[in-house]
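ok so I'm stuck.
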Amino acid sequence: MSIMNNSSHTPSCYNNTTTSYKYNPDSKNVSYSATATTFGLISNLIAFIVLIKSFRQTKNNSRSFFLIFLGGLVVTDFMGLLVSGSFVISFHATRIDWTELDPTCHFCNFMGMSMVFYGLSPLLLGATMATQRFIGINHPFASSSRMTKRGTISMVLMVWFIAGSISLLPQAGFGSYHIQTPGSWCFLNMTPKTSDWTFALLFSLVGLISIATSILLNTVSVVTLLKVYCGAERRQRSRDHEAEMMLQLILIMTISTVCWCPLLIYILMSSLNLPASDDMLLFFIRIATWNQILDPWIYIMIKVCKLRSSLPRQLLPGPILM
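replied:
not stuck anymore, here's the structure
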């Protein structure tokens, strides 16, 4: 049942007259949240170790730049699961009433900012990686002469800065965060108030434009690579490492699209007052969370496949000297 009344003393992030919600702690959700969070954290940790080893072994500049982006993506996914999982698991395990623990909305606002930051960062990083690969494949000489490791790290930091700036907008009065059913997490306050629906619209559009940019640029890059492999240019320079990077990028893009589009489209419809079921928000959030869990397995499985393909050659006997 709802724990909120319509009192004027109720903080805005808990006021049930803005975004309605139901306080509904369920012990069954503890096992699901704990299992998904633990599995995701371990997966990202393994992926980070794999990326560090690959970065130390690679001698190709474009691949090392790509691995820096992947490292930023893994760190983002790991921290996103750690922060959101800590809040959700503690709620379901202790059945905390946020209105008593956090009457000033500090925790609620922090979790709302975290959800926006760790939601937009992977999508923006995916679009940035697609842009970097597009330039690297279609304009390789210009890319190799201008791109540096320090510049790549700066681009990752810039993406985090942009996502962080957007997440902080409600603190400046543009939009707000509100507790959501079942009372374990906070997210966008999607109300008819101009600042609220505009902020929700901004979040959805940034996410959808990032995904669309990734799809467009990755498609062009794949077409270019196919032309190179099928043409005479294949003799001039090897593109095997670029094909591998594009495979990883395509898989990242596919997972992001499948996991995030339902939520982003739902938020877009809600902000524009189009018909959208309130009961679907939690379901779409859970689907989006799986993006952070599935991403690391792309790097892990590709590394396993590479090791398996190289294993027979290592086991072959050396030449017999006569």
